[in-house]
Design brief:
Blueprint (H helix, E strand, L loop, with lengths): L3 H9 E4 L3 E4 L3 E5 H13 L9 E5 L10 H16 L2 E3 L6 H8 L6 E4 L13 E4 L2 H8 L4 E4 L2 E8 L8 H12 L7 E6 L8 H9 L8 E3 L4 H9 L18 E6 L6 E3 L7 E3 H4 L6 E4 L7 H11 L9 E4 L4 H9 L2 H8 L2 E2 L19 E4 L15 E4 L2 H10 L27 E2 L25 E8 L6 H4 L3 H4 L6 H4 L11 H8 L2 E4 L12 H8 L2 E6 L4 H9 L3 E5 L4 H4 L5 E4 L2 H4 L4 E6 L2 E6 L4 H9 L2 H9 L1
Parallel strand pairs: 3-4, 3-6, 4-5, 6-7, 9-10, 9-12, 10-11, 15-16, 15-18, 16-17, 18-19, 21-22, 22-23, 23-24
Antiparallel strand pairs: 1-2, 2-8, 5-20, 13-14, 21-25, 24-27, 25-26, 26-27
Helix pairs in contact: 2-3, 2-5, 6-7, 10-12, 10-13, 22-23
This protein binds alpha-methylisocitric acid and iron/sulfur cluster.
Iron/sulfur cluster binds next to loops.
């Protein structure tokens, strides 16, 4: 079997030991909330210019400039990009994944991005992977990205979506069937005759939210639909055909598009999926349309078409965040924008906005229906808000009725015509031209870990349950995000939504360890969820299992991720227990060993590669590389 993913991986593999491959990276992307750290790390590597074919730095998360912090970061990002040969996408251009799809994604290429929704570009036939900023910094310096051998899951699409059912419902269906851990260690590859009915932005909605399955990436072939999209964006020359040779995948999931109906993820997990018709009638305070999952021109034209000549429900607040400047200006050009405004929508900036809690928090105990991809507790900025995730169609029907509504009740589905040619305007994507780096007072130096010491001991500072997300570990939102370049300050908020005493206790005890359940660290790629705990002296995290990117980030910053051999041991551990790990430096080379927790022996397993062992011993990846370079 040679799948699309395998074809791309094969042409980019520089070493393969049967377990892990080293992959050359053609393109990188960063966004502002992870970018400042990534570029500070890149600077530490002392490479004069990026070595990739293309690297782009986007500003889309921290665009609320309340005080100088975010603006300071933007200046640093602009000038560091100019110095090192990186394109700089200014605030206002739009969400990194949408802008990248429109302008730079290329079939057959590899992309590494310091954002977990980087697989968005898989909708255009790329192997696009989310990673921590340090991995992206190393890729910019020309280093390969190490990837465990993946299973390739084929998702066979047959039939055609019915009116009012959309691409979002396809990925919600995959989530309904497999859950938020269903994609761990896997690449999801879409195939089958149903593909031709889905445009590139629709495909990108599906690959984008593959991140919520825990999948390493998701990919569509590059076919006539891809060519049509690239032509419409004046990029026909970037097209090449890329299809699977046959259909023998490691696993196959079959989805009949015609059998799908509108779906919705209930609070507080993207995997909590039910039919919209099962939850109809719930009163709703807020509806938000946008995010990298659903902010394409097609999405917003659909919303505008449905809302044209109508007014949203009096008790609902509707926000619309266009995915890019191109989307917003074209929507303005065809009258869609005025239909939205007249219907009562609040038009926000082309940015992540409410998706990352940058404003628009719902009221206390409020219900918010969002076309986004994550609804973890507290992410919206209101701890007790109930956030649902749906398609644009369901969101609009709900905004009109003030209650969760199955969009099929709206009658005839409006036909949405897509332009054959999109407006092209790259004037606000700034080309590098050298110059000095500007570092505002918010840019604090990178904290560096110490090498692994042979005897580790400490207290269990916190015990948490399953599916703890990086939004729990290192919350975002308008108050905390501006501190992304200042680890001492941001570390004050570690685990704030779980236990507000965590920071002070960690400081008082001089660090310790954390105990987690299954899928620890799911969600975003933010390395601050490892860096800030490292700064607070966290030496190890014990868990039943870890999410891929977070585990890599823990290792990159020298925190030991230890997996219980017997998940039942988790039950016996209490907060405050004492942990002793003797001779750890030699032990981490073993696949299994025991540690003492509250005086009892507990077995843990390691799946660390040789390289990861080296990184952990050095106290982190940067220590290793900076040492090599010196
Ligand atoms: C997210 O959706 O959680 C984010 C914000 O885009 C993160 C990155 C970050 O925390 O900066 C992600 O998905 O990786
Ligand atoms: Fe931005 Fe939300 Fe997409 Fe993350 S998921 S990149 S915060 S729009």
């Amino acid at each position: 079997m040679v799948s699309v993913a395998e074809k791309i991986i094969k042409t980019h593999t520089i070493s393969d030991d049967g377990k892990e491959i080293e992959l050359m990276i053609d393109q990188t992307l960063t966004q502002d909330a992870t970018g400042t750290m990534a570029y500070l790390q890149f600077e530490a590597l002392r490479t004069p210019k990026v070595k990739t074919e293309l690297s782009v730095s986007y500003v889309d998360h921290n665009t609320l400039q309340s005080g100088p912090f975010n603006a300071d970061d933007h200046e640093y990002l602009r000038t560091v990009a100019s110095k090192y040969g990186i394109l700089f996408s200014k605030a206002g251009n739009g969400i990194c994944h949408q802008v990248h799809l429109e302008n730079f994604a290329k079939p057959g290429k590899t992309l590494l991005g310091s954002d977990s929704h980087t697989p968005n570009a898989g909708g255009l036939g790329m192997v696009a992977i989310g990673a921590g900023g340090l991995d992206v910094a190393l890729a910019m310096a020309g280093q390969p990205f190490t990837l465990k051998k993946q299973k390739i899951v084929g998702v066979k699409l047959t039939g055609k979506l019915k009116p009012w059912v959309s691409a979002k419902d396809v990925i919600l269906e995959v989530l309904r069937r497999t859950g938020v851990k269903g994609g761990v260690g896997k690449i999801m590859e879409y195939f089958g005759e149903g593909l031709k009915t889905l445009s590139v932005p629709e495909r990108a909605t599906i690959t984008n939210m593959g991140a919520e399955l825990g999948a390493t990436t998701s990919v569509f072939p590059s076919d006539d639909v891809t060519l049509k999209f690239l032509k419409a964006h004046g990029r026909e020359k970037d097209w090449s055909e890329l299809t699977a040779d046959d259909e023998s995948y490691d696993e196959v999931i079959e989805i009949d598009l015609a059998a799908l109906e509108p779906l919705i993820a209930k609070p507080h997990s993207p995997g909590n999926v039910v039919k919209v018709s099962d939850v109809e009638g719930v009163d709703v305070n807020q509806v938000c349309i946008g995010s990298c999952t659903n902010s394409s021109l097609k999405d917003l034209k659909t919303a505008a078409k449905i809302l044209k000549g109508k007014t949203i429900h009096p008790t609902v607040s509707l926000t619309v965040s266009p995915g890019s400047k191109q989307v917003l200006s074209m929507l303005a050009g065809d009258g869609g924008l005025s239909a939205l405004v007249k219907a009562g929508a609040r038009i926000l900036e082309c940015a992540c906005g409410p998706c990352i809690g940058m404003g628009q928090s719902p009221p206390s105990r409020g219900v918010s229906v969002r076309t986004f991809n994550r609804n973890f507790e507290g992410r919206s900025g209101t701890k007790d808000a109930q956030v649902y995730l749906s398609s644009v169609e369901t969101a609009v029907a709900t905004a009109l009725n003030g209650k969760l509504t199955d969009p099929r009740k709206l009658g005839e589905y409006p036909a949405v015509e897509m332009p054959l040619l999109f407006d092209k305007d790259e004037s606000t994507i700034i080309k590098p031209s050298g110059g000095d780096i500007i570092r505002g007072p918010n840019i604090k130096p990178l904290p560096i870990n110490t090498p692994l010491s042979d005897n580790l001991s400490g207290e269990v500072l916190l015990k948490v349950g399953d599916d703890i997300s990086t939004d729990h570990i290192m919350p975002a939102g308008s108050k905390i995000l501006p501190l992304r370049s200042n680890i001492p300050e941001i570390s004050k908020y570690v685990f704030e939504v779980v236990d507000s005493t965590f920071h002070d206790r960690a400081k008082e005890k001089g660090g310790g360890v954390i105990v987690g359940g299954a899928n620890y660290g799911q969600g975003s790629s933010r390395e601050h969820a490892a860096l800030a705990p490292m700064y607070l002296g966290i030496k190890a995290v014990f868990a039943k299992s870890f999410a891929r990117i977070h585990m890599a980030n823990l290792i990159n910053f020298g925190i030991l991720p230890l997996t219980f051999k017997n998940p039942k041991d988790y039950d016996h551990i209490k907060q405050g227990d004492n942990i002793v790990i003797e001779d750890i430096v030699s032990k981490i080379e073993n696949p299994e060993y025991t540690v003492k927790i509250a005086g009892k022996d507990v077995s843990v397993t390691n799946t660390f590669s040789k390289k990861q062992v080296e990184i952990l011993k050095a106290g982190g990846l940067l220590n290793l590389h900076v040492k090599c370079i010196k």
